Amino acid sequence: DACQSLPHLPIDVAQLDCDFLVGSSHKLCGPTGMGFLWARETLLEAMPPFLGGGEMIQDVYLDHSSWAELPHKFEAGTPAIGEAIGMGAALDYLNGIGLARIQAWEQRLIRQLFDRLQAIEGLRILGPTPEQQPHRGALAAFTVEGLHANDIAALLDSAGICIRSGHHCTQPLHRYYGLSGTARASLSFTTTPEEIDRFAEELQGTIAFLREHS
Predict the structure, then answer these.
(1) How far from the centroid of its chain's Cα atoms is residue 44's Cα?
(2) Residue 10 reports pLDDT greater than 90
């Protein structure tokens, strides 16, 4: 599952030696409702189609059908043409910037974010630091002692700062670690150092307010 990684760093399916890789358009700055599956050709040849419709049929008989050649075998019916064109344009945009450049910029930003968050009393970051894992993702999930992540996110939202709070599609993992939820700040190539500083300052003010009124 490369949905979260694709817009942040170069990915080589040959180097990964993976059988399947999936990506999501909206994570790539493209339209919603569109994604893709890459797979080894031998596996796609062996797999039966999971949807039926126009364009994926080669021949139809009373007792069986034969399938079209790849990739049409898995593309039943009228495709989402506009969304596909939009995703292609988004990929061209990202490749024009350069994924290696994006990764280098985000690595600089995540070090700054960790420095600011680690200076806040009672805040605990989950996961490895940039020093422990230099190529880690440009995000930070954290908890603040005595405060709920949803309250932190709601107050930051009122200040014009959007973060994620809750389980982040990993409720079993949160349950394993005994966490009711976490807050998560996610960065991208459009994030600036000044925005990280503002986020850290607003977060400190939010924590102080919640502690005073809890």
Answers:
(1) 25
(2) yes
Q: What is the structure's pLDDT at 214? A: 81
Q: Is the pTM of this model over 0.70?
A: yes
DSSP run (H or E) holding 89? helix 81-97
Angle of the 99-118 helix axis to the 193-212 helix axis, nearest 10: 30
pLDDT at 124 over 90: yes
**Averaged pLDDT, 98-107:** 97
- Tell me which residues are annotated as active site: 169
CA distances to 82, 165, 174, 182, 212 from 169, in Å: 28, 11, 10, 11, 31
Domains of the chain: 20-97 (no CATH), 100-213 (3.90.1150.10)
Q: Determine how many CB atoms are found less than 10 A away from the CB of residue 103.
A: 16
What is 151-166 written as a DSSP string? HHHHHHHHTT---EEE
186 forms bridges with which residues in the sheet?
A: 139
Look-up of token digits 């230099």: 134
